[in-house]
Amino acid sequence: MMGRASDPEGKTNWVNGLANGMTRDEVFAGFANSIEFANICNTYKIDRGSYTAKDIGSNNNKNNNKENEIKKPSGYKVYLGDDSYAGYYKFIYDLDGNKVKEEEYSVNGELVRYWEYLDFDEHGSYKKFHYVPVLNESENGEELWEEYNYEYNTEGIIKTKKEIADSHYIIYEYDERGIEIKYTVYNLDDSVRFYTTSIPKYDSNGKLMYVERFSNGELDYRIEYDEKEREICSYTYINENFYQYVKTTYDNDGKEHGSTVYTYEDGVTRIESYWIYDYEQ
Predict the structure, then answer these.
(1) How far apart are CA 115 and CA 70, in angstroms?
(2) DSSP E strands: which ranges in the chain?
């Protein structure tokens, strides 16, 4: 595929990935979306496009795809720190695997509100967002529509995103890996309300380790990643002192198991809430 033999370090990394739960499909996606393969395509003036790991199964058998790809959650149950049940969120997907709707249900099973993601582009990004409060509208806000415009580089990696609302718009900027590095909120007259900057940190092999976000020059958010570049912990800060963090765990087969929200006050850490994902069989 690359027109060369594998280098020892690269081969070791991919083999270790397979041994730790990565599918052959994900390996193929890594090759197809790499800068090296993009340069090969550019040499022959070919539009490489992008590839999502879902079309080729393990052992090159498409019939095995459903068994080997990481399943998408059908929703999650929410619990408070005392283990009492607090409600349920349900996800709905289209045939391409895009999440098109998210519904929130109360403890009693009543629909509280829902979010719709509409009009996806060729990269799988939604261009319209619709929020609809159903129960206790005065507490859940008003119905909301937003539109999104995207700019991608030649490799199909996002460069900028523009979020357009009724009273403002937001510009998101990303690095060459598609990691957010700046977030700016504008008034409709193009004046700036506020902005944040984010600094990603990569290890010597190019793997994402963490991202730190700064607002008015002060650290206000940090996300940490594991060796597979999955989010495992996020910290929220006030005056550069963290007061809340969220830990995310994964099953042995790579599925996201759930997350726990911890708060830190007066030297005491307590569980505020946690949620556990459901998966359709």
Answers:
(1) 24
(2) 73-80, 85-93, 99-105, 111-120, 126-133, 144-152, 158-164, 168-174, 180-187, 192-202, 208-215, 218-225, 231-238, 241-250, 256-265, 268-279
Token reading at 70:
């990481």
Residues 174-198 pLDDT 10s: 999 999 999 999 999 999 999 999 9
Distances (CA, A) of 131 to 109, 113, 137, 165: 19, 8, 12, 12
Query: Would you say the pTM of this structure is higher than 0.90?
Result: no
Q: Which two tokens stand for residue 209?
A: 């380790």
The DSSP bridge pattern shows strands 158-164 and 180-187 to be unpaired
How many CB atoms neighbour CB 211 within 10 A?
20
Exposure of 116 by Cβ count < 10 A (0-12 exposed, 13-18 middle, 19+ buried)?
A: middle
